[in-house]
């Protein structure tokens, strides 16, 4: 059977890895440039077709995939005269692989449905290295029939593919997940900073904490930098963590809930970004706390 035509918008580290995986498997891919040329040029060199606008991508595609940084970026590519919705083919499926606000997702879903297509949210777990081998975790939500249409493609991209219910459920779960993870990471980073203030060896602290029920993968990621000096074990930038926890806080506010726990992590992450640490990895929040408490 012939493979569906794929349109892909957002060839950052993750998006480019996903496009490479699709090309490895013989999917025809149409792309458009966003900010940087090198990954676009690499995809074109392997056979991808480059077009001028998101509308052109949609016009050439059965499935349109977006892997963007913010809800505003997704809305910018979906809406307007040159947006995906304007060029959508009948019964096409649009998939947002980014981490977006659920309210924005549902709004775009209504607009896509009105244009004759379907919209799914499918935020991702794991890393670009996993994407290259089709080993992502994919948290998909939206119309079940539309999900079943694209499920074979999702299974080519992901090892674990979930259908989580109504549109927006994937982004909701991803934001809760990231809120929890970034709160734990910041708590561990502060713990190492407090150990410095108290004159306690960081490794000794980690050995005790990890011997009990507090032990977790996130603890180990932060220890990877705080003790071992390797920030790459948690390859997630502070600026992205601040965005995601901020989205979680906004999601709570949209539901008329004042999140208590989000505020501490969000304050720390946003302050770190304001101090010029946004491109650092989240595990390097250890430095943020340690330097702050020593001063």
List keywords for this structure.
three-stranded mixed sheet, 295 residues, six-stranded parallel sheet, 12% strand, 55% helix, single chain, alpha/beta
Could you characterize what this model shows?
The protein is of the alpha/beta class. 55% of the residues lie in helices and 12% in strands. It contains 14 helices and 9 strands. It has helices at residues 13-24, 38-45, 54-59, 71-78, 84-87, 102-114, 128-132, 144-157, 169-198, 202-210, 217-226, 238-254, 261-277, 285-294; strands spanning 6-9, 29-32, 49-50, 63-66, 93-96, 118-121, 124-125, 136-140, 158-163. The strands form 2 sheets. The chain has a 6-stranded parallel β-sheet with strand order 3-2-1-4-5-6, with helices on both faces. A 3-stranded mixed β-sheet has the order 7-8-9. The N and C termini lie far apart (65 Å). 45% of the residues are buried. The mean pLDDT is 97.
């Amino acid at each position: 059977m012939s493979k569906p035509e794929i349109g892909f918008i957002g060839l950052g580290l993750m998006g480019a890895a996903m496009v490479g995986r699709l090309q490895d498997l013989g999917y025809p891919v149409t792309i458009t440039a966003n900010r940087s040329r090198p990954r676009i040029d690499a995809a074109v060199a392997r056979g991808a077709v480059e077009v001028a606008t998101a509308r052109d991508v949609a016009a050439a595609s059965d499935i349109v995939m977006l892997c963007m940084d913010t809800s505003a970026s997704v809305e910018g590519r979906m809406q307007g005269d040159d947006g995906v919705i304007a060029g959508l083919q009948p019964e096409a499926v649009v998939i947002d692989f980014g981490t977006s606000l659920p309210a924005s997702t549902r709004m775009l879903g209504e607009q896509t449905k009105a244009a004759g297509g379907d919209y799914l949210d499918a935020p991702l777990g794991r890393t670009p290295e996993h994407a290259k081998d089709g080993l992502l975790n994919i948290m998909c939500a939206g119309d079940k029939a539309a999900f079943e249409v694209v499920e074979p493609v999702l299974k080519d991209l992901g090892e674990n593919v979930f259908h989580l219910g109504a549109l927006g459920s994937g982004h909701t779960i991803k934001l809760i997940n990231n809120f929890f993870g970034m709160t734990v990471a910041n708590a561990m980073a502060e713990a190492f900073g407090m150990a410095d203030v108290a004159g306690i060896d960081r490794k000794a602290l980690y050995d005790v904490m990890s011997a009990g029920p507090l032990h977790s993968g996130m603890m180990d990621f932060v220890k990877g930098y705080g003790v071992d000096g390797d920030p790459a074990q948690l390859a997630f930038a502070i600026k992205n963590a601040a965005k995601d926890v901020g989205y979680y806080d906004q999601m709570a506010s949209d539901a008329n809930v004042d999140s208590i726990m989000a505020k501490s992590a969000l304050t720390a992450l946003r302050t770190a970004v304001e101090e010029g640490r946004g491109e650092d990895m989240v595990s390097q929040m250890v430095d943020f706390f340690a330097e702050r408490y020593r001063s």
